[in-house]
Amino acid sequence: MARIDVKKTYKLYIGGQFPRSESGRTYVVNDASGNLLANAAQASRKDARDAVIAARKAFGGWSSKTAYNRGQVIYRIAEVLEGRRDQFVAELRATEGVTAAKANTFVDAAIDRLVWYAGWADKITQVVSSANPVAGPYFNISSPEPTGVVAVVAPSGPLLGLVSVVAPIITTGNTCVVIASEAHPLTSITLGEVMATSDLPGGVINVLTGSVAEIAPWLASHMDVNGIDLTGVTDAELATALEVAAADNLKRLRRAPEATVDWLATPGTDRLTDWLETKTVWHPIGV
Amino acid sequence: MVKVPETHEDRSLRSARSHEGFEYAPAPESRSIVDIKPSYGLFIDGEFLDGHGKSFKTISPASEEVLAEIAEADESDVDLAVKAARRAHSRVWGRMPGSERAKYLFRIARIIQERGRELAVLESIDNGKPIKESRDVDIPNVAAHFFYYAGWADKLSHVGLGPDPKSLGVAGQVIPWNFPLLMLAWKIAPALAAGNTVVLKPAETTPLTALLFAEICQQADLPPGVVNIVTGAGATGQAIVAHPDVDKVAFTGSTDVGKAIARAVAGTKKKVTLELGGKAANIVFDDAPVDQAVEGIVNGIFFNQGHVCCAGSRLLVQESIADEMLERLKRRMSTLRMGDPLDKNTDIGAINSGEQLKRIRELSEVGDAEGAERWEVACDLPTKGFWFPPTLFTGVTQAHRIAREEIFGPVLSVLTFRTPAEAVEKANNTPFGLSAGVWTDKGSRILWMANQLRAGVVWANTFNKFDPTSPFGGYKESGYGREGGLPGLAAYLEGTH
Q1: How many CB pairs under 8 A join A and B?
Q2: For B268, which residue in chain A has the nearest alpha carbon?
Q3: Which one, A19, A54, B147, B484, has least CB within 10 Å?
Q4: ipTM, two decimals
Q5: Which residue in A247, A248, A281 is closest to B450 by CB distance?
Q6: pLDDT over 90 percentage in chain A
């Protein structure tokens, strides 16, 4: 008799833990041929708020780590992902119905993207800082600091898409709450398992699965969220509503892209700089 | 004669007495250098036109004298201005070599210097700020801003946005009344250097220097439509922000209006920078150089009558030196000279408007009602115009409205702390994050504090310093984007990577 395999329960990833939705709700996720893959957790407003609390709690520690250390942790995520690449290739094939070659391309790109951003951790400050030659006897220097807690609506690629939006946010010391691809959420939760075993402190990345239209407005209006990335929002009306809500505490905003994004292309630095604040410090010079 | 060494008490008594008996002779700057016209139109496409709105009056806040009748731009006027700006962008300014744009900006900078005295006097008349400030701070900084950004116009490939960054197009800019011409310079200089054209609305209480700037653009032969100045109140500003052909909105003003702008541009492709309110903590440690700290506190809150978004309006003083610091502070405040903005001896001028005076009074009364203790400089206020004496509140807690809300006037709230961690906690306990001050002799503590403070500008052992090369702007609800320096230029460019 064939062995009965052990199926995984896909839950949320909040504060380094894998809780079910407090609402007790799940939704059916099918594979590309319409067969049941799993029941994903359907996150609620309360889950979103819990995730923000976890992200805020993690912000102080993560943002005050040295840039070198953050780079090491992000590189470690890439290492662990590399070690589990077969699992991700299989999951992408099952959930999205892509060929083995394509699934391999996405996994390669996701790993390489993590390595790329890991390298940025201790460089972006040098690229965007300045010593300012003010007209007076003052030391004056501008350097970037992380914005804080960033909410993200991830694009549809559950691995490469999610990594591409989340990695730049945490590279500079921000923490985030990300709503995974609504249609293909499972791989994002598996990715949470990679994060949880990569020395990434709990709460730095929090992954919610469920309805974007339901959860995103709570994050957009949340007064303890400092920025919102609408990359994965495909409904223009929802994007506008989220932008209006985000104005309540003047969240930094990244709008949904106007054209289709080629996630395989090498990114620019804009996803890093979008979530940075410039701080300028003055001090008199004298004896 | 034998000299008797005086005691501390003797000295303070004598200085108090001599202060009472000592009078300054008035030293007014002449008004004759400025020719204020009875009425002003809108500056659109290089010409002054009548507006279609209801005209309004601008007055001197020091005397309530009517200075001029100002045209109000309605939606159709704003549309005309945006069209002129679009035309100028696509036909002239946007395709002009950067080296040529630079020369126009240098020219403007030079004319501002040439007409600096005139601009300073006009600014003080219309705004109420002391001539000392408009002459020594505002106008020199205006010229410096144009000089700084002029030199960037032909160096955009070095900004860090790729080999050939592009201008955004038409910038709609709305500025406040506290530094009328300086805010104009912060907005217009980088926008033009980057190749954008602008439609700018000055504040309704301080339109005059912007209109004189329009004349300077004519003198500089700036191509028509590159700079358009439309005067009016909130509705005119809304029309600019909402205009579908505006590519970039830049606003300096209140956080409430900033939020309304963020909502108004939702769902559009407009880029936005917002420079909004603040409630800066000025933190004084027990090892601070005391005299410099007192000067810094005074400058931090009473500079420009406290009409400064980055004003050090919350004094956080270490408990062990609080009494001494307050005593010295009060003594120093008593020597501040308040009165005629055009008098060269004046330290504190007039509150910019009756409306603002009302807000300052209301919030101060809330301070009384909530149990804080008010102390103000005893001085005779002029009978005409809008005046508020330099004031401080002690016994302020973090829950008090005067410790949370921006008063935008010469009112200082004093709180105390014991440890650096407590100072940081209190300083950051605000939805704002524009600026902060730190006073201590210990270098490592300055750097630690500077790291911990969630504010866009940190002044250590100094306060309220500004420079065109130095980025300025806030964290959190103090807005987003930076003005000045490289980030100030990048805010008007699109990368080509």
Answers
A1: 105
A2: A240
A3: A19
A4: 0.95
A5: A281
A6: 96
| B414: nearest Cα among B321, B309, B289, B303 | B321
Distance from CA of A213 to the nearest CA of B (A): 16
Residues B361 and B376: their CA atoms lie apart, in Å, by 13
DSSP classification of residue B343: B
- CB-based contact B456 A280, cutoff 8 Å: yes
Q: Rounded to an integer, what distance in angstroms lies between the CA atom of residue B355 and that of residue B203? A: 13
- Which of B29, B275, B406, B483 is an active site residue? B275
pLDDT for B380 equals: 84
pLDDT tens for residues B458-495?
999 999 999 999 999 999 999 999 999 999 999 999 98
- Predicted local distance difference test score (pLDDT) of residue B10: 38
Give the pLDDT confidence of A123-142 residue by residue, as tens digits. Answer: 999 999 999 999 999 999 99
Across the interface, do B471 and A236 touch by the CB < 8 Å criterion? no
Of B262, B471, B497, the CB nearest to A278: B471
Best A250, A262, A270 residue to mutate vs chain B (most B CBs within 10 Å): A250
- Amino acid found at B43: F
Asked if A281 lies within 8 A of B486 by C-beta distance, the reply is: no
Residue B275 falls in the annotated catalytic set: yes
CB contact under 8 A, A283 and B462: yes
Distance CA A212, CA A241 (A): 13
This prediction's pTM: 0.95
Least confident range from B21-30, B53-62, B228-237, B282-291: namely B21-30
